[in-house]
Amino acid sequence: MTPHSPGTGQINTLIWIGFFAALLVVVVINLGLFGAIRRNRAGRGRTATQSRGAVGLQWRVAGVLSGFAVLLFVLGIIFTSNATSTPQTTSAGLTSYHGEKLEGPLLIKATGQQWVWRYNYPNGSFSYYKLVIPAHTEIELKLTSTDVIHTWNVPDLAPKVEAVPGKDTKVYFRADAEGEFWGRASTLSGQAYASMRTAVEVVSPERFEEFTTELQKGIRAGNEGAEEIESEEVAELAEMEEDSAAESGESTGEGEGESNE
Amino acid sequence: MNEAPRPEIAVDGFPRRNRWGWMDFVTSADHKDVAKILMVGSGGFLFLAALELFLMRLQLAIPENTFLEPVTFNRVLSLYGATSIFFFVLPLVMGIFLFVAPLQVGARGTALPRLSQLGGALWVAGAAILYSGFLWTPSEAGVNPLPPLSELAFLSNNGVDTWLTACGFATLGFVLIAIDLATTLQVDRAPGMAWRRAPIFAWAASVGSWLMLFIGPVVLAAFTMLMIDRNYDGTFFIDGAGGAPLLWQHLTWIFYSGAYMLVLIFAFAAIAEIFPVFSGNELFNRTAVMASIVAIAVIGTLAYMQNMYTAPIGIGWKYFGMLMSLALIVPVGLVFYNLIATLNGGALRMRAPVLFSIGALVMISLGLAAEMQQSLVGAAFYLKNTTASTAATSFALIGGGIFGGFAALHYWFPKITGRAMGEQLGRLSFWVTAAGTLLAFVPLALAGWEQDQVVDAYKFFNHTGVNFYNLLASIGVLILLIGIVLILINAVASVKGGARAGHDPWGGDTLEWFTVSPPPVHNFDVQPDVRSARPLRDIRAAIAARAHEAEERAVRESQPVA
What we know:
The structure holds two protein chains of two kinds. Chain A has two domains: 62 residues, no CATH class; 155 residues, Sandwich (Immunoglobulin-like), CATH 2.60.40.420. Helices cover 36% and strands 22% of the residues of chain A. Chain A is built from five helices and twelve strands. In chain A, β1 and β2 form a beta hairpin. The longest helix of chain A is centred in the first third of the chain and has 34 residues. The radius of gyration of chain A is 26 Å and the shape is elongated. The C terminus of chain A is likely disordered. Chain B is mostly helical. Chain B has one domain: Cytochrome c oxidase-like, subunit I domain (Cytochrome C Oxidase, Chain A, Up-down Bundle). Chain B is built from 16 helices and no strands. In chain B, α3 packs antiparallel against α6. The model of chain B has no long low-confidence stretch (mean pLDDT 92). The chains are: A alpha+beta, B mainly alpha. At the A-B interface, α1 and α2 of A face α3, α7, α8, α9 and α10 of B.
C-alpha cells in the first residue's frame, strides 16, 4: 500500500510498528528455542540435570511480557484513533459546492450491491463502480448494502469497512493526491466477488464540481463508469444494476417468493 | 535405574471381544475406540482438506485462471473450511485428548462412555452428510457462511443446509465428548492424583473440554438460527425484519476463536509432555504452564472481536478485542518461555516427536506474531481479509494442528497401536511439510501486505504485482500436500509394519505408559498410587531400589558367617 491520506499514513505506520514487534517476538522465541536445542542435545554421555522453575522468575517474565503488551496496546490506540479521526478540509480542497459554502465533510453515500458499488453524490447524481472525489477535502462516506455484506476497501485512501444491510457505516478520509486508486471488495459476496472492484478518482475541486454537474445533467452515470471496467461481466452487471436501480432499495430479499422444495 | 516398570496386567487371561470383528469396534463405547474413529477419520479429512486447498491454489497459480468456475471455487472453498476445521483439526484434537487423557489419569474408562459413543457417531454422520451433500449441492457461502449471503434469498439450493447440518452434527459430537471427558478427568483420576500432579496434557484436555462446553453451544445456536431462517421463515439474521446480520459474526467468531485456542492449548500441552520426556527433564514450572493454559482458553475466546474490526460495531469493542488479543501475549509468552526453559540442562533426544514439536513451536510463533500485528485495530483496517491474515491463521493452525497434532501422534502412536511410527519417513515428512508450509504462506503474507490480495477470491488480476507470490504459494501447497501424504502413509504403514514398541518406548513419566500397548479394554488392572507429577518415574525408582536391595541381600547372604 502507498498511503495517500492522513488516515492511511497512520495505518501504515502502525503496520510497521506491528511488524517490528512481531519480528522481535519471532526472533527472540526462535533464537531462544534453537539456542536451547543446540546447547542441550543428547550425546557424548550427557545426562540431564534437573532444573526447576522459580515462581519469582515467572513473575518477572510475565512482567516483561505485560509491559510489551501494554506498550503495543497504547501505540495501537494512539495510531488507530489518529487513523479514524476526521481529517479537516484544507484550503486547497472543496470549500464551496454549487455556490454554497461547504461546512464539514462532503457527504457521499456508497451502496454495495452484488457485485458493484453505487455512489450517490450530494447533488443527487450517482455513479456506478467509480467514485470521483475532490482532493484535500474531508469525505464522509456512508456505506450500506442492499443485499449481502460487502467490504469497501480502497487501501491507499481509507480503512476498509464492511457495508452491512440495515446499518449505516461511516468512514472519514481525505485524499491528499490526485490520481486513480484501486479497491477490491474483500468479503465473499457470491459468484462474481473476485471481480467486484472499485476505483476512486481523486480530482481537483473544480473538476469535481464539473463532473457532478455533468452527471446531474442526465449523462447516465452507469455508462461512464462501466467503460472503465476491464472485466466484461462486471460491465454487464453494472448495466443490469442500472436498469433495476429504481428497485434496488427493495432487493433486500426475504426469500418469500422462493421455497426450498 | 532405567529398568522399565512392568505393567501389572495379565492380558492373556482377559476375554477379548472379538466375536463381531469390525462391528465390535464401531459399536464400542470404549473411549479408545471412539477416539480411534475420530483420529483415523481426521487423517482422511486432512488429506481431503489439503487436496481442496491444492485445487484452489491450482486455480490461483496464474492470474485470471479459468481452471475452476467461480461457483466451483466457492464450493471447494466452503468444503475446505468445514473439512479443515470441523473434520480435521477439531476431531484430531478431541480424539487424541479422548484417547490419552483418561489413560494419563489412570482411569479404567470414561465416566459417561455412551455420550462419547454418541458423539463419535454424530461426528461420523456429520462427515457423511457433508460429503454426500457435496455430490449434489454443496454450499457456496465460504469458510464462514455469513448471512445474508447464506440466507435463502441468495443461496436457494440446500447446500448451506447440508453444510450447517454437517458442521452442527460434528459440533454436537464434540460437545458430548467434551462432557464425557471433563467428567472423567474430574472424578476418575487415580488415587493421589490431585490436579497439581495430573499430567499437563490431561489438564489441557480438561480445560479444552470445558472450553468446548462453552463455545460449542454458541455456534450450535447460530447454526440452528440460520436453519430456522432458511427453512421456517425465521428472521434472526435478516435486516429489516427484526434480525441482524451482525449477530452471526458474534456467535460464530466466539466459536472459531475458542476452537483456535483449543488447538493451541492442545499443541502446547502435547509439547509440554514431549519435551520433558525426550530431554530427561521436568517441565519447567508446571504451575505457570497450567495457569497459562487456562488463561489462553479464556482470554483467547474473549478476544473474538479481533475478527470484527471492520464490522460496524463500536470502536470501544474493537479496543476491547485488541486488549484481549494483546493480553494473550502474557500466557502464550510464558508457555513458550517454560517450554524452552524445559530443554535447558536436559539431554534432548532428537526423535520425530521432538522434531514435530519444534516445527510446531516455530510455526505457531510465526502465526501468533503475525496475529499480534493484526490485532492492532488500525493495522487490521488494512490487513484484515487479505491473504496476510489467512497466512497468519494458517501458520498458527498448521503449527498447532498438523505439526502439534503429528508430534502428539508420533509420541502416542506406540500406545495407540503397539507399534512405533517409522522414524526415517517421519523425519522426511517433517522436512517436506515444513518446507511446504513456509513456501505456501510466506508469499501469501507478502502478497496480502504489499498488494492487498484479498481472501476467498477465485481469481486475481494480472499486473497487480502478485503473480510470482501466488505461483510460489501454489508450489508450496503442492509440497505441503506431498508432506501430508507422506505423514499419512507413515501412519498407515506403521499400524501393521512399525517396530514393536512395548509399553513404554520413550521412558515416559505419566501413567499411560504403565499399561500395555495397545491398552486393554479396561486400561489398568491396578491403579497405582500417585505421589508426584511423575508417577512412572517413582515406580521405576521403586523397582530399582527393590532390585538394589535384593542384590545387597544376595551379597550379604553369600558372605560366610564368621
